Amino acid sequence: MNRLRYSVDLSYEVLDAEADFLFNIEAARTARQRIVSERLTVPPVLRMDQYTDAVLCNRLIRLRAPKGHLAIHYEAVVDIDHRLDDPSTLHEVPIAQLPFEVLPYLAPSRYCESDRLMEFALREFGRVPWGYSRVVAIREWARNHVRFLSTSTNERTSAVDTIVERTGVCRDFAHLMIAICRALSIPARISSSLDYGADPALGPPDFHAFVEVFLSGRWYLVDPSGTSIPTGLLRIGTGRDAGEIPFAAIFGKVESERPFVQIHAVTDTALGLEMPLYTDWGICTW
Known about the structure:
It comes from Cupriavidus basilensis. It is a single chain. The chain is of the alpha+beta class. Helix content is 15%, strand content 37%. It has 4 helices and 15 strands. Strand 6, helix 3 (159-165) and strand 7 form a beta-alpha-beta unit. The protein is globular and about 60 Å long.
């Protein structure tokens, strides 16, 4: 089991009379991800509404802030009990056998234009053996053909843009892999996390995007950017693409500061808490 301690500090200046915010920064509760402790700090004078999606487990915070400074702090200790499966046992599921709730993750979305990448996907991966090995082939193609470059893209960059420009950040790698998987009829979606284990040369700790693919009846995580240690990826938000899970959606005239993020692993041999490690096995945290 892995235990991760993380914190997020967000800072804004509201320039109009007021502005509305939706935050998705709290750790999700799933069968394999448990919150040991957490604390959310917002200005006490603000009314706050909280909502948890019953299916995806996304936890949303909604508040309206008046003109002036707004600071949000969240911290949590999270345990992840990974399910690790032999890759040779993970198979693609025929469309006729997919659960209905999984079908939306086959369709094109705003940032994952799988319909436009179908010819490319079939040419590159149509003859690759089906199953986890094909997912790994897609992941490796993205890593070998796209260069990770901070601030090289923006919120409008899509999978098609990335395959043309061949540079991007974690969300661009994720969108590209999701689009290729969907073009091959492999359900795929995006999840938000923090970049545990990332090279400090890439910059200070930040939010991170990874991919989940549906194989053998479960969702398995994959990090196509290769910048983080997969078993150190805790789950915050999950959706069809990044447009559905921003850590902050802002409605109004607001100046934003860069998020301040920290994440560390907690180890304790007596409790069976180990450091996150790389593994070739399929990783499920759902």
